[in-house]
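Recap quiz, item 2
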Amino acid sequence: GAVVSQHPSRVICKSGTSVKIECRSLDFQATTMFWYRQFPKQSLMLMATSNEGSKATYEQGVEKDKFLINHASLTLSTLTVTSAHPEDSSFYICSARELGPSRSGNTIYFGEGSWLTVV
Amino acid sequence: GQQLNQSPQSMFIQEGEDVSMNCTSSSIFNTWLWYKQDPGEGPVLLIALYKAGELTSNGRLTAQFGITRKDSFLNISASIPSDVGIYFCAGLSGEYGNKLVFGAGTILRVKS
């Protein structure tokens, strides 16, 4: 299957600083990528939909000024957590939509996830 | 929040047993996807289903897209210890803007 890569896999940052997480589709072009946050033992919570060349669409309750998303190319989306605080510590996961040929549908592949710890 | 009802929430089975889990919804979906997530990692796609009635296998895994397009099941035959993990169903639907909606997950534990 297609590969989606996230970097870094783990990051520790100081409170008040910003941290950037990258999501790349390695072998396909993704006009749409998604960013999720996952709390322990829970399912994934969609934060925003990242559209190549346009502004991201944020889910209700997600602060767009805090979680900046940039989808500058068909293979790269970035999530920047600005002025991070300890409560932002979490597992962040991206996914990318691979458009299927006409006889099959879309498929969504996930990255490996990024652990953010804010100290 | 989730719009898919996934069951069971957890299973603790003997190695070698078959496993079955399912997802239902009140909405129609045009794609069903099944993922497995190991602790600390991202979900890995197991099976993708695109047509109502479609039955697809991937090794010991078999999944079906319900004929009503409102449900799907995943079966694992002859379970082994490495099957341990959380299994999520997910669906794509125009009703939800073609954003993936998830079930709550099924935690699978296997006794060897």
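The CA atoms of residues 4 and 83 of chain A lie 27 Å apart.
DSSP finds no helices and eleven strands in chain A.
End of item.
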